[in-house]
Amino acid sequence: MSRDAGFSLNESVISPQECVGLIADLSAAGLPRTRAGARHLLSFPPVAAIARDSRLTRIAAEALGRDAVPFRATLFDKSPTSNWLIPWHQDTALPIAARFDAPGWGPWSRKGGVDYAHAPSWALERVIALRLHLDDCTARNGPLRVIAGSHHAGVLCDEKVAEEVRHNDHIECVIGRGGVLAMRPLLLHSSSKVMSDAPRRVVHIEYVDALGLAAGIRLAVG
Questions:
Q1: What is the pTM of this model?
Q2: Using CA atoms, how far apart are residues 109 and 94, in angstroms rounded to an integer?
Q3: What is the 3-state secondary structure (H, E, C) of 70-136?
Q4: Distance CA 151, CA 128 (A)
Q5: Domain holding 53: CATH number?
Q6: Is 137 part of any domain?
Q7: In whole angstroms, what is the distance from residue 149 CA to residue 168 CA?
């Protein structure tokens, strides 16, 4: 991954047959679902196995420049019957094992029994997300759009996000089944609705160099 760009596209990381198998496992598991997919999947053995697979951890470790520990996995299941768009934003909330008070952290929220806090730049810079595409991601089924290099600006307010979007071009991240999009959480990104009959299923796995970010600050795993 280029540190300047803040993302990379890695084709054919796992095989199409492995993607089909993981889709079948997820469908048969009866996992609690949200409109967008399912949260906290590292407790599900097939997802935990792929999150720790050397083909993915190698990409994450190269981006972080050190060890890569998976701490959160989410399924995003976008299709014509479950469709949405995402405006331009950064991913700034992290799951926390126990609440604390510290400058730069918050506001807090709770999702699926887990506490989340919006985190400062120094913590988010230690995180990399890998988006494993279980289907071909084309220009018509809601690909992620990114603004290269925007992660260097730190955590942005809404006005600064709008300014970055006005003044910079975006890139559509189309990628084949089994490919992995690696991205920094502070990279500005968005996605459109699906405009075809093809689904767009993505397992979004986040890695960190160490679960303990600082004294009294530890990420939750799920």
A1: 0.95
A2: 10
A3: EEEEEEEEEECCECCCEEEECCCEEEECCCCCCCCCCCEEEECCEEEEECCHHHHCCEEEEEEECCC
A4: 12
A5: 2.60.120.620
A6: yes
A7: 10
Q: With contact defined as beta carbons under 8 Å apart, do 149 and 164 qualify?
A: no
pLDDT at 148 over 90: yes
Q: Give the DSSP letter of residue 209.
A: S
Q: Answer whether residue 185 is part of any domain.
A: yes
pLDDT tens-place string over residues 20-38: 999 999 999 888 877 778 9
Has residue 111 been placed in a domain?
A: no
Pick left, alpha or beta for residue 178 (phi over 0 → left; psi -120 to 50 → alpha; otherwise beta): left
- Residues 6 or more apart whose Cβ sits within 8 Å of residue 51: 42, 70, 73, 205
Tally of domains in the chain = 1
